[in-house]
Design a protein that fits this description.
alpha/beta, flat, homotrimer, about 375 residues, nine-stranded parallel beta sheet
């Protein structure tokens, strides 16, 4: 392998160039030289910072940043400002502009094991300790970091970053510009067994996983191959760490799945859905486009498009906010119920009342259940 | 390593042979040639399909499948049918019959690092980038895929499939016909610390993990070695992805553990138990044979044999169904309680009633708690 | 690599030496030879055992152990006893005394790929199939097991154990005496995206992870690099398996994080905190020193120092114990509410009462909500 220039290149730009990259308007010196981007607390005079979260309002007056991106001009910051519609988006774009490219060597290592009947594109980087199986195809400019396993007949597109110790099992298909973080497993067997008396008989998992362009998979994910057909992650979807996606799941475009969520077999998740962390979704459920699911929710039935739900089992989010706040008041409710029972009994036992005894007897029963 | 014939062998069979393999009865042409098995939606005229889930009833009339396995003859499908007691089990068996064997090379790679004081059985496949430590034993016809780590004194039985990047730490024992999916860690240290003032003092984890015959472990599992003695997964148990099994846990035969479940130290789980996804079980708990635990449940005390529980903390499943449905009605309950309080007060304040004031005063208290 | 003596050394000590190591007082023969430590059920006559959990009281009378460590002299055990303030801590110390050192070879394997511009300390062990990148530094007596990836500019301190298939990405800093169990990923990208209409625009994650001295990380953890600055795990903190720690999280000294817990971005966790298994903490939350969080809790707001909380959303633990026990009684509450509604109506409809009708009408409304 050849060592390419991997050190941070000393990148310089001006505020004017930054403003035009993010479509912003400058208030102040457009020729200011900018060498980096940093948080309000940590930025120095040659760095630009950004304000997008009120949580950090008091840092605005104290920051040493040389310039600021913000959605409305602020009197709290004395230096030049770039007024942008979305300061967080501007931050993402400027950080990408200033960040060095992902550091990597170039060329194909002699220490990799690459099957002679595989197809390796132009500008591919393959580190040592990589295994590429029979019939695999690696697209142009893709990088396979050390410890990556590429099974037989796997197809990987162009400009992908497959980080260390990722496993892509036989037959799976990965699109272009896909990033897979370390330790993730693509195409392990789906969890399919049929009980034959006590014994669990394995259902062969003969399908694949297909991951489309611009998908990013977090670290130590498990995305299982389909029993038949394919498990399918569509364009632009992003998963966080330790996510489980079972066999035959289909996930639409631009969906966000936060850490430690599990999606059971044959679920269909729509596009632009947001699934928070530690959510569980049982099998064969449909989640509509742009639905939002709160953290730790348990989804046991279809969620219509655009719905916002929380809780386990999940209910509309606004109802959940009220209901979950009341859970802690159950001991109080219990006490109030007992006291009012006594108060009703006092009323009922009053000599003026005849024969209200029968409902009173009934009231003693429910505890039996 | 020698490259063995790894391409899908063009397998052909007849409906008659399939029927006798699954113990089914044919309605129609027993000489029909079958080349594969597929879902109702995707099967073609030379493929057999199956019907086991009412969810897919409407596909029955539309399928292009050449033949069908079903538990009762249906008029909706016009082609030959194989009547079987359990169509899903028949599917598993026929798929196994028609699936090519797991594709793998044969022989011992020069690119593996195998300690000279280890014992390698007959017909073993060891891929490059595998490490086999001092004193390890690998049984006949077992396959170690790239990136597998086999620690010192590990014993692995016959016909096992140890998938890429699996780690089996020193001294652990794996039975015959065991499958371990990629990235799983067998025999990492149990999480044992004793507080000595603020400091956490490590308790050496000197035990092992023992995994018995026909166990299948999903991807990225963590099964910890015992502090003393062994963590023990018995014959036929299957785990899904991202499962955590702590030190000194014992799991009985033929148990099913769905994805992202965590079982704390020293739990004893019975045989044929079904534990759904994202369940958490605290330490030292006993779960009886054939118990069933619903998704996301939290188990804090023993579950008797055969019980079906759900919820966190878990309660009998039928009670949980009712109770969890009512959680969303807590805001309504709260409102009703307030209104009835007023109604009782109206009654109590009625001039006909003397001295019901004392319970009324009491009723003002509980909010303080 | 040279093979060092890796077999269990036949270690022998006496009860007297054990007592002085743990600061205990001997009742019985101080010259008794001890060759190991084991549980009450499994210990033999040359082994010492310990009693720290009432759960195992009945084993006290039956054990074959040669000696016992216990906090108060017991008549149930006939052999010599070592009286110690904390029997579990004594067990940890004696087990460490008797345990062989972690078995490992010595030297630098020719089968590792180590960049020539890296710095390797004295007494370092590097197994085959390890990758060490440009600019990395490995401290004295640290061991890198097979399959470990050490990225560019990573600094690892002294006497660390980095177990198989651990991935440490570029620029991360690991202290001294750190243990990282197999499959963990340190420094994967944080999960940072900004929505630009439907599209998720990646925020470059240019920070690092810093792990301080004496930290122990379980198997298959994911600890993400900061967006800017660092994700920081301070001295003495221990994590169990499958833990997720997001970008820019700071965790104080001597904190304990049990398996499958997830901590979202920018959380600040104090020192000596105990976080049980499967807990989820949303982003930007502060958890105070010595707080304790029960299993499966969901933390959505700050937890003051020393607080003990449980539940999702979390509430004070004692309140949660009461409230969660009452959840299962919701069906009963519902029934009681309905019955008392009837009883109040009976009272209200009594001919002696005039005009209580208006609250009664109101009472019919809430169900509409």
């Amino acid at each position: 392998m050849r060592q390419i220039d991997r050190r941070k290149h000393a990148l310089k730009t001006t505020l004017g160039e930054i403003a035009s990259a993010v479509g912003g308007e400058i208030v102040g010196n457009r020729d200011l030289v900018i060498t980096g981007i940093n948080s309000l607390n940590d930025a120095g005079p040659s760095e630009i910072s950004f304000f997008s979260n009120r949580r950090y309002q008091e840092s605005l007056g104290k920051t040493c940043a040389g310039a600021l991106m913000i959605s409305h001009k602020t009197p709290l910051f004395k230096g030049p400002q770039v007024i942008v519609p979305n300061a967080e988006l501007a931050y993402a774009k400027v950080a990408a502009l200033l960040a060095p490219p992902v550091s990597r060597e170039s060329g194909i290592s002699q220490g990799a094991v690459i099957h002679q009947e595989s197809v390796i594109g132009k500008g591919v980087t393959i580190y040592p300790m990589v295994f590429v199986g029979h019939g695999a195809e690696i697209g142009d400019e893709t990088t396979l970091f050390p410890g990556v396993f590429v099974g037989e007949d796997v197809k990987i597109g162009k400009k992908c970053l497959i980080y260390p110790n990722v496993v892509i099992m036989n037959g799976c298909i990965i699109g272009n510009d896909v990033i897979i973080h370390p330790g993730s497993v693509i195409g392990g067997d789906g969890f399919g067994f049929v009980r034959d008396r006590a014994e669990s008989v394995k259902i062969p998992q003969t399908g694949i996983v297909q991951i489309d362009d611009q998908v990013e998979i977090g670290s130590n994910n498990c995305i299982d191959r389909a029993a038949l057909g394919k498990t399918w992650i569509k364009r632009g979807t992003k998963t966080d760490n330790l996510v489980h996606i079972a066999h035959n799941v289909v996930i639409g475009e631009d969906t966000i799945i936060v850490a430690q969520t599990g999606i059971s077999g044959s679920c269909h998740i729509g596009r632009e859905v947001v699934i928070a962390g530690q959510v569980g979704i049982i099998d064969h459920v449909e989640v509509g486009d742009r639905a939002m699911i709160g953290p730790q929710s348990g989804i046991a039935k279809a969620i219509p498009a655009g719905e916002v739900v929380s809780g386990s089992p999940a209910i509309p989010h606004r109802l959940w906010l009220k209901a979950s706040a009341l859970t802690s008041r159950l001991p109080e409710f219990n006490q109030r119920l007992r006291q009012w029972e006594k108060r009703i009994e006092v009323v009922e036992r009053h000599p003026l009342y005849p024969s209200t005894s029968s409902p009173s007897e009934k009231a003693a029963e429910p505890r039996k259940e």
